[in-house]
Amino acid sequence: MKSAQKIKLGISIGDLNGIGGEVIIKTFDDSRMLDFCTPIIFASVKTLSFLKKHFDLSINFQGIEKPSEAIDGKVNVINVWKENAVINFGAEDPESGKYAFKSLQAATKALKEDEIDVLVTAPINKNTIQSEEFKFPGHTDYLARELQGDSLMLMITDNLKVGLLTDHVPLKDIAGIITPELIEKKISTIQKTLQQDFRISKPKIAVLGINPHSGDHGLIGQEDETILKPTIQKLKDKGNLVFGPYAADSFFGSKNHENFDAIIASYHDQGLIPFKTLSFGEGVNFTAGLKKVRTSPDHGTAFEIAGKNCANINSFKEAVFKAIEIFKTRKEYKKLTKDPLRKQSKKI
After folding, report:
1. What's the CA gap between 6 and 66, in Å, rounded?
2. What separation, in Å, do the N-terminal and C-terminal C-alpha atoms of the chain show?
3. Contact 162, 263 (CB under 8 A)
4. How many helices (H) and strands (E) in the chain?
5. Among residues 305, 290, 241, which one has the least CA distance to residue 23?
6. Pairing between β-strand 293-297 and β-strand 161-164 as defined by DSSP bridges
7. What is the pLDDT of residues 208-234, one digit of tens each?
8. What is the pTM of this model?
9. Considering all CA atoms of the chain, what is the largest pairwise distance in Å, rounded to the nearest integer?
10. Contact, 42 vs 80, CB < 8 A?
11. On the CB side of 84, how many CA atoms lie within 13 Å of its CA?
12. Would the pLDDT of 194 be above 90?
């Protein structure tokens, strides 16, 4: 009997001057990783060979022209560029950003066209990648445009899931952006992903307040009283298990997060500081709400340690495993929920 084909896992290399290339090739230098997927790196054999030599690794690469040529049991590389890309570890260089976008663009196209099953993105530098073609604050917004859907940044470990109402938004703009419509949309997205991607049929969700102490009944800002509380109550009245707003300063320290399947923070640092503290460098960034599966490590380019052979690969490795796991779970969910009335009639 022919064995099932492994998941084709696409990888964008991120900023060449950061730690992306290092964590990618160190992850797949362990040949056991090839038992779980068929990796396809969108970059250049020349670039990866340079990194292999620099980090003194034994990994070998299989150069291919398109994803359909990928070979199971090999680390496949699609040559998105043929020239020698100059790598200057730790430098913030628009040239490096150009290659980061080329890799991301090619990998995203392959994902859209079902040539790969999932995408894991290595970190980009949000400054150097900017161009006429990329005018976004990060991966999430770009992928939301390209892959369609209501994207939501969801930071995940096995025991903790933290989503964001707003992500890369200046602090001064947050209160004006959070509306009842936004809250309902984000909560709907997180409910759907918890059901289809994590097998949680009736998710219990906590919402963190916008202001200190959730506004202290309006003494420290009105937004929690006038926007968050009425919207949460409306959702509860419809039968949703949504609770809050909770004061963010004590929520995680009191371990209240352990009582919920997911937590929605009002803004980026409110959610990511406790998440990264509790995940011990093994967390994963999952873009929920899209038609395709994309994950990434929970760290950035780490220019300060780039090229020094000391980057921790755990978060990237977890991003690989989570992408595979979510893809399989979603596939199973779609199969189980496809035409349920027809399935019932067959049983009668």
Report:
1. 17
2. 33
3. yes
4. 12, 12
5. 305
6. unpaired
7. 999 888 766 766 778 889 999 999 999
8. 0.91
9. 68
10. yes
11. 4
12. yes
